[in-house]
Every structure is written in C-alpha cells, then in structure tokens.
Amino acid sequence: MNRRTFLATPAVAAAAATEAVAANDKIGVALIGCGGMGRSDLADFQKQPEVEIRALCDVYRPNAETAAKMLTGKADLYNDYRRILERKDVDAVVVATPDHWHPLIAIQACEAGKDVYVEKPISHNVREGRLMVEAARRHKRVMQVGIQQRSGAHFQRAVAAVKEGRIGKVHFAQCWNHGFSASNKGMGHPEDAPVPEGLDWDLWLGPAPKIPYNPARRNFRAFWDYAGGELTNWCVHLIDIVHWALEVDTPLTVTSSGGKWFYDDCRDCADTQEVIWEYPGNLLVRYSTLVHNSFGPNGHPGNKSFGSYGIMLQGTKGTLFIDRAGYEIIPQMEMHSEKVTQGSREAYDDLNGLGQFFTGLTMAERATTSFQHQPHVRNFVDCLKSREKPVGDIEIGHHSTATCLIGNIALRTGEKLQWDGAKEQFKNSAKANEMLRREYRKPWTLAGL
C-alpha cells in the first residue's frame, strides 16, 4: 500500500469498536504531532494513572525523539500516523499536528475505532469541521477539542455568573490579542532550501498544495494553506467563552477589515485585523489582533508574555473581564442626583456634577487563575470510560472554529457576509461559499468534502 493511500480497508473498519474502556484496563494513547503543543498534551496525559503512552508520531523525527525523552515508559516512534491507526492496542489518539492535518487524521481515527483528542482549530475549513462531527457521531467516538478553558474552575464560575444574570443583558462582547514586535522584519523572505534531515516534507504538506520546502512555512499559522493567523489560533479560545457564557454559537453576519500591515515578510495571514459578528438577540461581538501595539481595550498595557488579551462581556448591569489569569466583574454605575442641587446645566459645566452620586447595579467580584489543561485531559479520559460527551465536544469546537473561519473569509472577500448556520453556507456570496471547503492534493481524499 502506498504510504499516502487513504486508509479505509475492511480490516481497519472491522477493528472499530464502540465498547467503553473497562474501568480496570489501561488506556493506550498515541500522540500524533510532537511539537510544542503536542508535548504539552503528552505531559498531562502521562499524569493520568490509567493512561499508557504507546506510540509517538511526527513527520519530523527529532520532534518524536524529543517527546520520547519525556516518557516514563517506552513507546514506538513513527513518522506516518496511519501505522498508529492500524494498532489494536491504541484506544485513543491525540492530534496536535499543524491545523490542516487535523480533520483527516481525526476522521480516519474514528473510522479505525479510536477516540480522539484534537487541538483547536479543529479544521482548515468549515466543511471539514462538519465532517469531523459526523464521523464522531457515526462511529460513536468520544472527540474532545483542546478548548481547555472550559475545564478551568474560574472560567466555569464566571460563565455561571453571566448565566445567572449578574451582569444583565449583554449586547456587546469583545475579544482581543494585542502584542508588540519591536521589528517589522518578522520571518523575512527566506529562499527555498533543502529539506532538513529527518523531515518528511511531502507528508508534512499532506492534503495541502505541493510546494518546495521553505523554512518559513513551518510557522504554519501564518499561511492560508495550513491555518488562518491569530483569528484561528487564539480567537477560537476566546470566542468559545463568548458562545458558552451567552448561550449562542452561530452568528448571523460577519465582516472583517485588516491585512498584513506591519510585517514585511512572506506571510499570507493578517497581522492587523478586526472582525465583527452579529448574533441573534441583538448581540454584537468584536475581535481584534495587533502586533504593533499591545495596549488592550481593558486598559492593560500588554506587559505580559501574551501581550494584552482577553474577553469582555458588557451587560446592562456590569462588565465581565476574563482571561486565563482570572476574572473580574465590574458593576455598571447608575447616576443619581440629590434632591437639592444645582441644575443639570451647571452640573454638566462643572464636569464632576455637584450633588450627584453613583451606585453599582451588581456586586463586584474577582477571581484568580485555575488549572485548565490537566482537568480537560482528565475529563476526556473519564469520558473514554463513561462514553459521555466531553466538556469540549467536537460539535462545540466546530462552532467556535467555524465562527473564526468565516471571519477570515469575510476579510479575504471584502464583503459583509450573511451566514446560514443551519446549512453552514453564506446567503449572499457565491465567492465566499467556494472558500468553505477545498480540494485535497492527490492522492489524499476525504469523503464528503
């Protein structure tokens, strides 16, 4: 069998099992994609007492070897993920590859009877994401998305406060990633180069278009062929909390402005971007990303490793700010006037307003950080045994990813797009609908795409 042939043989299909993992069995886990995020996943999966890491896979051999050094036991090393899917002793896979590989690996893992923990964004395009949901349901697989903030206690507490009405009716939410780069050189414009030893470049590309090796391309989030910039990198995490807290998941319209305005390098994706979504219930949601200035909408100067980032929900009774470090509820202040005071004109001219006082419409609250990633992994492992849906189920991850993907489509088309969430297509743009899927490079195929 050609190593790039679609793995869908009767033998593999027959190996698919839907039974729950017995409580006293070891759960065989394989990591596919051993870069930085993959190794973070590996660290927390190893902490689960019933988990045994049985295989590691990466198209760049040094990545797999680095991950192997983290293991408390031994695991087999591969460069082709399909060899892992053939193994009957692997119950679940962690997919931490570049974004463009997530759908095919996850779907084939479901077909091979494996449960899946897949990093966000779940897909390169909207149609792939829907096919992932369908595969998980059709094969009765547990598929957890790496939207680990849902497992953080302070995120859960803050979301509960919003749902209880503590900040009132929310009509505006904003998320942002604002950073500062002292230089606009970025990745530069490197020439194509020989493929490094230990890297299978053709397999790294997979279903993406065939191009010569270039070192800049391994910064995959900056190129449309593999990802979608900060909008699909960070905003998926942020918009997911907006969806969760406000109980929405499908916008009505989207528009976006920006582009590659700061960096003078070879990237495709925007370094300066704003996206506006309109949701049912008169809700406006905004996302912005900057690299030339780190000051945030919440007034933070951005003197943190991530710069300024976070989520603000602005309601009729108060505002919630939340990020991974904690949250704060700031009451909306309501103005009152003493019975005997200056007239409104004089008070206005005084700027301070003599005889006026302000009271809060809700109670202030503040919380610090909580563990997020490890309990998210724990939730996945528990669901492998219970067969319940995890807190970051694939359907949830699909909606949060798709919302960001259509933001980039709005940017690239320059149109205000009307979104039909039920059909997952645009109502007003044939050009935009063409960008909801893409053709795979042969011989890679994905049924339904």
From TrEMBL:
Domain Gfo/Idh/MocA-like oxidoreductase bacterial type C-terminal: 185-251, 372-445
Keyword entries, A-Z: Signal
Signal sequence range: 1-22
Gene Ontology molecular function, alphabetical: nucleotide binding
Alphabetized Pfam families for the sequence: GFO_IDH_MocA (PF01408), GFO_IDH_MocA_C2 (PF19051)
Residue stretches making up the Gfo/Idh/MocA-like oxidoreductase N-terminal domain: 27-146
PANTHER family for the chain: BCDNA.GH03377, OXIDOREDUCTASE FAMILY PROTEIN
Protein name: Gfo/Idh/MocA family oxidoreductase
Species the sequence originates in: Paludibaculum fermentans
